[in-house]
Amino acid sequence: MHGGRYWGTAGRRKARRLGGGRGDTGERRRLILVAAIVLVVSIGAGTMVLLRAGSGPETQTPALPPPATQSPPVVGVGDSGQLLDAPDADVAQALDAVTALGATSIRLPITWAFVEPEQGVLDWSPVDRIVVAAEQRDLSILGMIAYSPGWAAVPGAAGLSALAAEPSSPALFGQFAGRVAERYRDRIAAYEVWNEPNSSLFFAPASDPVAYTDLLKAAYREIKDHDPAALVVGGAITSVVDSPIFMNAVDFARGMYDAGAQGHFDALSFHPYHRTTGFAAGTIWPESPIRQLIDIRQLMVQHGDQDKKIWATEYGLPSAEVPGTTASALIANFLTTWQELPYGGPLYLFEIIDRGTGSADPEHTFGLLTGDFTPKLTFLAAQHVLGQEIPLSSEASRFAGKAPPSLGEIRSPVYAVGTSLRQEFEDGTLYETDSGYVVVPPPIAAKMRQSPARPTTQFADGTQQFEGDTGLRAFTSPAGTFLVHGAILDAYDPALGFPVTDEYDTADGRRESRFQHGAITWSSGTGAVVTFA
């Protein structure tokens, strides 16, 4: 797709078994890690007891043992649902891999359709089994509550599968979320409401921020009623632009706020997928994941949610499309640069294990491990970074403490354009230059975003000079932000006022810039000619 962007997470809910098709439990299932200690843990399957609504208290599945102490998640790994019906040995190996990676959390789908396939008939045992196994390894859990059973779905709506249909009743969805929070109180630290609702693949029949916000409100109230300490994470928005099946991530977040989402989440979540460009490097490109993230952050600040964070609850690369060396570099870069964002919350790599190693379908190859539990280069890269406690990059270290307080909150990681390093803040961009650090105001920084030129002067009186073989000056005024350079800049007279256009080609082959009080036209025959209006 456009720009190599990963536009969604299609197909993740169908194959829910680890390493399907393997016929033995020998060497192919050993976890080969750089520095792993295999923990042998017995995980009981539990006993399923089904009761219909009204037949007694909700004790369909045996009670769990007392909870273990949890620590807040920092870096985790997501599961696509495979663990819920995987053999015990596979669950053990998968979660041992998470701990060997250095991660401290898992993102676990708590699928409404699987827990309550018939109204009033609930089976918690698959989820219980993973919760206990995670606790035994001191892994915290982000529970992702989503996906409608047929009896609770909008009739005839199907996205990637029938499970993706929008719930017909926000109240019923909220009640289920409350039951989840009640059962896993003090065990699951945070809940994410739905998955990628700005995609009709996961929220059918169409992505709808108003309908999603209704679900979020209902879930928030019920979760807080049953577990006030649990965090509710809203959004789960994937980085996409408008198309017949996707809604632009920023527009979806704006639609949530317009629909009254404020006050009904403790954090927002985002999936900054991109298959070719590093997270920070995308800062120069419109609609890149980091640019959408910056815009969503600005929405939060505008609505008074500056104290809430954005969690990255999915990020990964499919080995079917991205070579291992490239993918490992992108994973390491993401882990490092995400930490530079003061508003960045926990992050989750997607996913633990392939659903189809060797498949041509990229959706089956996002795993950090192959189907026989062999670590990929992405696993080893992430393990290396986490083993160093996510060190600050040398570039970010150089920028630390250099920005004046007036610039406000950091909005982007440090990024490079050519040899030019810079970092965006709430109220300007900080450039590293040969003579020190120089602030560029937002309108000029946006204009110069893709240019490697660095400022050579401080901003003053609406203008700022930049590097350029023929000279380059940026002007900003209520009329807009424009660049003047070369012979036209040499001929510039302040009496012309500020520019109102960039330089452009005229119909007769000349170059021209227009100003508040005139124009400058250049041709090889006449040179620069100043005309006052």
Structural class: alpha/beta
The value of Rg in angstroms is 27 Å
Share of helical residues: 10-25%
**Main sheet strand line-up:** 1-2-3-4-5-6-7-8
Q: Give the overall pLDDT as a whole number.
A: 88
- Poorly predicted segments: 1-59, 68-73
Instruction: Kindly report how far apart the N and C termini lie.
Output: 48 Å
Instruction: Please report which band the strand proportion falls in: under 5%, 5-15%, 15-25%, 25-35%, 35-45% or over 45%.
Output: 15-25%
Biggest sheet layout: 8 strands, parallel, barrel
Q: How many helices?
A: 12
The backbone outline, from C-alpha atoms, is elongated
If you had to describe this structure to a student in words, what would you say it looks like?
With 533 residues, this protein is of the alpha/beta class. The chain is 24% helix and 19% strand. It contains twelve helices and 19 strands. It has helices spanning 88-101, 112-115, 125-136, 170-183, 209-226, 249-258, 289-302, 324-338, 377-387, 394-399, 442-447, 486-490, and strands at residues 75-78, 105-111, 140-146, 190-193, 231-238, 267-271, 309-312, 344-350, 415-417, 420-425, 428-433, 436-440, 463-466, 472-477, 480-485, 504-505, 511-515, 518-523, 527-532. The strands form four sheets. Strands 1-2-3-4-5-6-7-8 form an eight-stranded parallel beta barrel, surrounded by six helices. A four-stranded antiparallel beta sheet has the order 9-10-11-12. A hairpin with a 5-residue loop joins β16 and β17 (511-515). It is elongated.
